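U., I forgot to send this yesterday:
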Amino acid sequence: MTARRDLIARTVLYLILIAGLLVVVGPFLWMLLSSFKPEGEIRSVPPTWWPSHWTLVHYRDLFARLDFPRYFANSAIVAVLVTVGNLLFCSLLGYALAKLNFPGRKALFLIVLGMLMVPGMVLFVPQFVLVSNLGLANSYAGLVLPFLAGPFGVFLMRQFLLSIPDDLIEAARVDGAGEWRIFWRIVLPLCRPALATLGILTFLASWNNFLWPLVVATTDDKYTLPVALALYSIGQNRIYFGLLLAGAVVVVLPVLIVFLVLQRQFLRGIATTGLK
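Result:
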């Protein structure tokens, strides 16, 4: 009787998980299939799943109408710089808050927690005014500098670093290692799961960022891929959904590749961060 009850419970659990998977994956699958449909079929009601006529015209238009290499390079440059900056500065701040004793450490950590509660849109206008007054509008610096570090990354790294034994760091200090050497040679190699988690989340957010590049970039040579895709897929009297879907597929691919490469470290970081 118990074995039968367990089998039923396991079956119900699997059905719920499969239903949840379909809800999550369904829109992405429809986006991928619809990018190969003619424009008329995309607009058909009710919508169809499988294309009746396969076509690559939207992908050809994507590379013909957009300066795709430039926009892709802009997105890659901004996303990589923002990700590297977060990995460096957030890990440094997290190490200081977790392992160094200095006056005001608790107050600084409370400020970090408070910043987590502040909506990003509240800081949008002050950041834009600051970037404009510094003469950084329509530049890579203006796109990158406001996002080189964030409270979430500091909190994530601090929580992970708390799990590293203090005795390990104290032993390195007794052996004569300085704080920089301890950080680079001991702490950072142990932080790979947390760094992978922070790197994926930061890259994803930066790659998909739309509003900030739309406001800061004033000429098309500084447009990122999401901005260029949105602007060029909207005509005077209509929206080219096929071009938009094909561009969305291309935008998703780099993020998917990054996740597949780092998924093991990402899952390990999610599982181990915040145990203390």
